[in-house]
Amino acid sequence: MAFWLIIIVLLVGAAALLVVPAMRHSGKSTAASRDTLNKAFYQDRLHELEQDEQQGVVAERPELVKELQQNLLNDIPGQQDTQEKPINRWALVPGVALLVVVTLGFYLKTGGLAQVLDWQQVEAQMPDLRARVANERAQPLSMEEIARLGLGLRTALQQDDRNINDWMMLGRVGMALNNATTATQAFAHAYQLDPNSLEVRLGYAEVLTRSNDPEDNKQATQMLRKMIAEDHTNMRVLSLLAFNAFEQGDFKQAIGAWQVMLKLLPANDQRAEVIKRSIEQAKTQAGEETVKLGINVTLSPQATNALPQQGTLVISVTDGTNPVPVAVKQLPLSRFPLSFSLDDSNAMMPERLLSAQHQVKVRVRISQDGLATPHAGDWFGESALQNFSGKEQIDVQINKQVP
Q1: What is the Cβ-side half-sphere exposure of residue 279, based on CA atoms within 13 angstroms?
Q2: H helices within 111-195, ranges in order?
Q3: What is the pLDDT of residue 26?
Q4: What is the four-CA torsion angle of 43, 47, 50, 54, rounded to 10 degrees?
């Protein structure tokens, strides 16, 4: 409404500039007429003759005055029979109408009225669009509605540029519209406002992962590794890390991340098959044989006599320097001797794969409660630190007890 009021005021002002000067009519002429000028000249000339006579310069003053009067009479203009008529006010109406028509025509042609009306319509639809986005059961937005939502979000962020949720939503809109620039810039703003938010970091990392810029991919890798170090069970982080590594050709890390995801998924989860196919594809791309560590476990006579009826065999592999295991596997307690193998699917973290180790140390423990934490009285055995190339067999005898 304010916009149209401004337009009306401007049109009235322009019309006034056209009409007012034409309507002004003065009954008196401001310029000196010819008759007035002649009279002024006559008086000045008389004054000069008087001065000349006093100085003795002129001797025949009466004759000169008479001649001056005759010249004045000859130069008096005749009275004009006609006077200029004022302009008819109605004659100005077509000009004003033409001004209005031309002005509005130019605005409709170049002023973007359609875009303004569309923007106003989007503003009116924003509450409904936001509600549908927040409601998972609502009808999904069409591509046109997503674009409208993006326009409304940009407008809202002009008024409140510290709204993190709107920046994140705009980033997702950019991803949905395949607009990498909008998505990256929006999540970058959100990340600047709250760099500690997990949701913001995940969204930003996903955008950087999908970017065609290698530097963006590297930044995403750094962010994801930092997040996985904070929580190595976060499925979204693992999924993004695997995808990022696969896209950059780091197939070992991708395989490791997917294998960790397989261990975290509940039984009969439909996502497991997709992840397994991804692992096979990564292995094919890597063109390498699967690295395996073979382990043979035996019991000492004392451990055999103390073997519980039920329990769990906990196998952990370290690199000999870091106490945090590289790979872990649990098996139900069964007959001994027992042989099995570990590979990258048993890795604890995708950035520490078994295939990346050059030396390993194996520890096997019998746990009665199935927990990873050792308890007093648990029987265990350890191997020496051995070199590892991917095909070794290591023998471990369980012959000690946790004090």
Answers
A1: 20
A2: 113-134, 143-159, 164-176, 180-193
A3: 43
A4: 180
Say whether pTM exceeds 0.85: no
Strand 393-398 versus strand 293-299 pairing type = parallel
User: Is the same domain home to 247 and 333?
Assistant: no
Instruction: Write the CATH number for 170.
Output: 1.25.40.10
Sheet holding 293-299, edge to edge: 338-342, 293-299, 393-398
Residue 136 and residue 252 share a domain: yes
Of 118 and 225, the structure prediction assigns the larger pLDDT to 225
pLDDT at site 87: 58
Query: Is the preceding peptide bond at 403 cis, omega within 30 degrees of 0?
Result: no
> What would the pLDDT profile of 324-368 be if each residue is shown by its tens digit?
899 999 888 878 888 888 888 788 887 788 888 889 999 999 988
**Has residue 79 got a pLDDT over 70?**
no
Which pair of tokens denotes residue 378? 């648990």
Tokens 């920046």 sit on residue: 167
Domain extent at residue 384: 292-402
